[in-house]
Amino acid sequence: MVGEWHILDNIKAIREDKALWSLFEAIVKANVSIKAVLDTKSGLALSQVTTSGRWRVHHTMLEGAFEQPGYVADARLSYFPSEFEEEIRAGRDKLVALLGAKETTK
Asked: How far apart are CA 63 and CA 48, in angstroms?
């Protein structure tokens, strides 16, 4: 889409900016934690997270770009799947409703 900005398309600029590189490092670290949750807890999901495979490809591409910033494969196939976040939120909402819990975070 025109006008969208993607990390994987901007690794060179990110590497040249210390603040952006620190942010990129934090994103990669957060993704490692998300992957660990998916690997160990996805069987507990109330519904399928159909975009988790696309998210995993995206995560692998980000890790590769972090480890070898001079090489980034064609990223168009591995942009962050925005639907992933929507599916996770919908699952959380189902769980909150099922448990009758009050939502404490957004």
From this structure: 25
Closest to 68 in 3D by CA, of 11, 18, 106: 11
The amino acid occupying position 70 is G
Q: Is the whole-model pTM more than 0.90? A: no
Sign, CA dihedral 94-95-100-105, equals negative
Q: Give residue for tokens 């599916």.
A: 87
**Complete DSSP assignment for 27-95:** HHHHHHHHHHHHHHHGGG-SS--TTHHHHHHHHHHHHHHHH-TT----GGGGS--HHHHHHHHHHHHHH
pLDDT digits (tens, 9 = 90+) for 24-45: 999 999 988 888 887 787 666 6
Q: Is the pLDDT of residue 73 over 70?
A: no
Which of these, 4, 101, 13, 8, lies nearest to 62 by C-alpha position? 8
